[in-house]
């Protein structure tokens, strides 16, 4: 299975955005020059935003193209539809709900069968979670201290579209609004990038 494996801190500094969510990822961002330092052409800015979004959600280019094509057919604007589709991927919601401390860890948890959706084991990271779906730690995953600690530490933090339960369960309670999704991306630049081809 193909996946993005480059060093995440280095990638975050190169893109000028904390794409891995680690508090120390941008510690050395002020040193030297970055390719994301404002001296970019219009195409360069569009490409940078596309790379940031891909890196943030950990999707490969072929997957990204599928999401863009689906977003172009959506009834709402393409940019917000694209971000919402990526936000409701199973691996991302496992991370957002606090079961994992990073998207990479969340993807590994899903691949290893540690997460259930509505009581059934799902091991596909790109699975599209629907409003009302309940995610939970699988029975054997509840014995893993790391997963329990991650979730317990995250109980105080939540997003408007996620409802958490203390019994290691969380629900996608509503469709995420674009303004509630904590991703610093200019959606329109990504739409413009893909409209070139």
Give a description of the structure.
The protein has 197 residues and is of the alpha+beta class. It has helices spanning 8-15, 42-57, 61-73, 78-87, 90-96, 103-111, 145-154, 187-195, and strands at 115-117, 120-121, 134-137, 162-165, 169-172. It has a 5-stranded antiparallel beta sheet with strand order 2-1-3-5-4, with helices on one face. A hairpin with a 2-residue loop joins strand 1 and strand 2 (120-121). It is globular.
Concise synopsis of the structure shown:
By secondary structure, the protein is of the alpha+beta class. It is built from 8 helices and 5 strands.
Summarize the biggest pleated sheet.
5 strands, antiparallel
Terminal Cα span:
27 Å
Number of strand segments: 5
Strand content: 5-15%
Order of helices and strands: HHHHHHEEEHEEH
What sort of overall outline do the alpha carbons produce when their principal axes are compared?
A: globular
- Low-confidence segments, ≥5 residues, pLDDT <50? none
Per DSSP, the total helix count is: 8
Overall SS class: alpha+beta
Helix fraction, binned, reads 40-55%
- Taking all residues together, what is the mean pLDDT? 86
Spatial ordering of strands, largest sheet: 2-1-3-5-4
Question: Which structural traits does this protein have?
Answer:
197 residues; alpha+beta; 8 helices
Topology at a glance:
Layout: H1 8-15, H2 42-57, H3 61-73, H4 78-87, H5 90-96, H6 103-111, E1 115-117, E2 120-121, E3 134-137, H7 145-154, E4 162-165, E5 169-172, H8 187-195
Antiparallel strand pairs: 1-2, 1-3, 3-5, 4-5
Helix pairs in contact: 2-8, 3-4, 4-8, 5-6
């Amino acid at each position: 299975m193909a996946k993005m494996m480059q060093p995440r801190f280095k990638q975050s500094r190169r893109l000028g955005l904390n794409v891995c969510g680690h508090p120390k990822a941008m510690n050395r961002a002020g040193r030297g020059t970055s390719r994301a330092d404002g001296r970019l052409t219009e195409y360069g800015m569009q490409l940078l935003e596309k790379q940031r979004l891909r890196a943030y959600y950990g999707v490969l280019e072929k997957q990204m193209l599928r999401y863009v094509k689906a977003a172009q057919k959506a009834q709402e604007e393409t940019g917000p539809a694209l971000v919402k589709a990526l936000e409701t991927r199973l691996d991302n919601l496992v991370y957002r709900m606090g079961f994992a401390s990073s998207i990479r860890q969340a993807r590994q948890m899903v691949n290893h069968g540690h997460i259930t959706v509505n009581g059934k084991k799902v091991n596909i990271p790109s699975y599209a979670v629907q409003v009302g779906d309940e995610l939970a730690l699988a029975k054997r995953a509840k014995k893993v201290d790391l997963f329990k600690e991650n979730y317990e530490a995250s109980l105080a933090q939540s997003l408007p579209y996620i409802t958490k339960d203390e019994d290691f369960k969380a629900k996608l309670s509503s469709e995420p609004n674009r303004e509630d999704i904590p991703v610093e991306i200019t959606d329109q630049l990504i739409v413009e990038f893909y409209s070139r081809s």
